Amino acid sequence: MKKLKLIIAIFVFFPLLLQAQERPNIIFILADDLGYIDLGCYGNPFNETPVLDQLAKNGMSFTQAYAHPACSPSRAALMTGKHPARLQITTALGLDRQEPNSPVVVPKTVENLPSSEITLAEILKRNGYNTGMVGKWHLGDTDKTGAFAQGFDYNRVISKNALDYYNYGISSNGKTIFEDNGSEYLTDKLTDYAVEFIQTQQKEHPFFLYLAYSAPHLLIIPKAEKVSKYMWKYNKFEGKYNPYYATMVESLDDGIGKIIKELERLKLDENTLIIFMSDNGGIGMDQIAYRPTTMEPLRKWKGHVYEGGIRVPLIMFWKNKIKADSKNENYVIIQDFVPTIMELIGDKAIPSNVDGKSILSTMYNPAAKFERGPVYFHFPHFSGQGGRPAGAVRDGAWKLVENYETGETELFNLDEDISESNDFKSENPKKAKELFSMLKKWQNEIDAKMPVKKDKQ
């Protein structure tokens, strides 16, 4: 009888064990306000990012990856696979600004990601993954909407002063477990928690780690011991780059290096998919003294639907699965990761109203034809970076931007003009009309909340 039970157990559990070994561990690292050209591998000659540069060399870098213009929308899209406008999370939670001199009143966002939404963590949990979240959640902090309630068993969340790198708090399961007294740099602390999570994993179960750094978001607070070399470089580059910001970017890079070394030490690097991305464009405002970064040649920055606000670095590494030193020129967007990861692990029960599209085929073969279809952007708000209410649609090379205050539109050809400096609307009114119609139809279909004229309130 015991032998029979043993044989049954082998037949039941061996396939599950085999499946766990075949499915990769997944680490998704999200930087905060990191610009498109802030990494060496994306052409930055000033910031030193050897770890991410090597990760790109060993894996794949995307030239046309998109997030959304602000923090919370991108995070909501990543967790649900849905467009932020569908979720009514279209700006950073708690930052519903109004502008007295504007002709419009902008809509309010919801206060948190509803607990009814099925998150990426919950999807992976039901597929046998251990789940961990470290860093900036920014999608709600109630008992039902915090990271611990949205599928993350291990959670170390910034709960106080997320933008102060030496005076912050960390919570787990909604309770404060650490308050800094000025001794532990926040980027380093988050790295330590990520390493701690990885060290607790057993090989018979795959894991998912969502590491959301707060760096290099303002406030610009670098580690003092790293600044001097960038000050030496500052004059060489005629003041174009910010040495303090560069120091913060390097600390971020250092942290990722520690995580990769730990994976190698534990022999987990062979079957771990690492994805690195930013939540929106960098802050390149000329109005800020000693501006953090430059978005050139892209137009504008965070808080805008122009390329500088939404085009971000994206690097993917999976040893012997993703082609080394490959460039992917297909355009993809952050909500694509839910259907992509679900296809990767063989889960076909995709939640309703998912807007993303699996990019798994182009991960494996960037040269293969990949019809992404249109991507939409909706930012009906005033941003702290000078952004104003606007929307956009990209379909192929063409992109249309709509100003929600005036109703005016612009048409750009991104294949010819990445800087969005030439408006083709008068030269190609048919294409402008086509894209405008697509944008309006999409807004209606997902019930996108729009600004309202003040005289119509």
UniProtKB/TrEMBL annotation:
Keyword Transferase in record: yes
InterPro entries found in the cross-reference section: Alkaline_phosphatase_core_sf, Sulfatase, Sulfatase_CS, Sulfatase_N
Claim: Methyltransferase is one of the keywords in the record: no
Sulfatase N-terminal domain mapped to chain residues: 24-346
Requisite cofactors: Ca(2+)
Keywords: Calcium, Hydrolase, Metal-binding, Signal, Transferase
SUPFAM superfamilies attached to this UniProt entry: Alkaline phosphatase-like
Coiled-coil blocks: none
Molecular function terms, GO-annotated: arylsulfatase activity; metal ion binding; transferase activity
Similarity-based family: Belongs to the sulfatase family.
Entry protein name: Sulfatase-like hydrolase/transferase
Native source species: Maribellus comscasis
Classification of source organism: Bacteria, Pseudomonadati, Bacteroidota, Bacteroidia, Marinilabiliales
